[in-house]
Amino acid sequence: MHHATFPYLDVPVSRIGFGAFGLGGVFGAFDESEAIAALHLCWERGVNFLDTARHYGASESIIGKALKAWSGPRPFIASKAETIGPREQWGAPRPVDVCFPKGHITREAEASLRALGVDSIDLYQMHLYWPNWGVEGYWLDELESLRATGKIRSFGVSLPDQRHDAGLPLVLSGRIHSVQTVFNIFDPTPLDCLIPLCRENDVAVIARCVLDEGGLAGTLKKDTAFQEGDFRARYFDMGPRETYIAKVDALRKFIPDQASSLASLALKFVLKDPGVTTAVSSMHLKPHAEENIRAADEPPLSDEAFDTLYRHHRWIRNFYHPKVF
Which of 70, 81, 96, 287 has the greatest number of CB atoms lying within 10 Å of its CB? Predict the structure, then answer.
């Protein structure tokens, strides 16, 4: 497993991370004991970066159980303070004092500590940031206070959707330690400004949706049916499913010369730039964990293949807001 340095803390973190979104049941039902076994497998294989959130249902408590049953080195734990009200608000960003009123971030962090069963969280993120909130205020003071008391070791923001440039003011301010953003083959735009500026300012980049909610793995078919409660039933049908499948099929020409699978291709694309600290993907199922770990051990993409993907396979759209498809 390859590692990168988390800049502010100067500690090694795995370049692929365990994304705990799936532990909230959004990808369908799962067996809790098997999920704990998948967590242990990842930690055994060197996947030491773990990203969860208050928003992810029982995710933090499941991770807490896995930690209690784990005797190896403690993983790097990242979690997030949930906003009051909806995180995505296309065209109408709400004020920070509505989303994160005074004291809310502190209460969220303390709830995360209890659920995880730990004394400190390595990285605590706000699960939303809008540039009109500025780069200072009581909300940043709360994060600084949590760090000063040792309840968290570093802090950052998770951007709400594909608009990665929303995080630029905070990156340039020098006030935060990480940014989490959507980044994948279909939407490589964080490479334009966000990732280079984060690297210049010693801000960690956490890439998410690297498999585009699983679509880039190439398993989506015209007749694929999802379990009740699986949000992908809505996500992939925001537009014509045939269009999505055609865009993915166009990537198959890179297999097997550049990657062993489409999922591997997607992960290797995101990890090509050293400015990406870690790429998180749902790995609560052992087969998914095994495939991602294998991908991280493969040789990197060639410069030519990366450039072709970057320039000719981008397909920028926002499936979180159907009216803009």
Answer: 81
CB of 152 within 8 A of CB of 124? yes
CA-CA distance, 155 to 8, in Å (whole number)?
A: 10
CA angle 30, 19, 260 (to 5 degrees): 90
Q: What is the pTM assigned to this prediction?
A: 0.93
pLDDT digits (tens, 9 = 90+) for 140-174: 999 999 999 999 999 999 998 788 888 999 999 99
Contacts of 306 (CB under 8 A, 6+ apart): 269, 272
DSSP state of 83: P
CATH class label, 3-324: alpha beta
CB 209 within 8 A of CB 182: yes
- In sequence order, the 6+-apart residues with CB closer than 8 A to the CB of 313 are 185, 186, 247, 250, 251
Q: Which two tokens stand for residue 95?
A: 């004020």
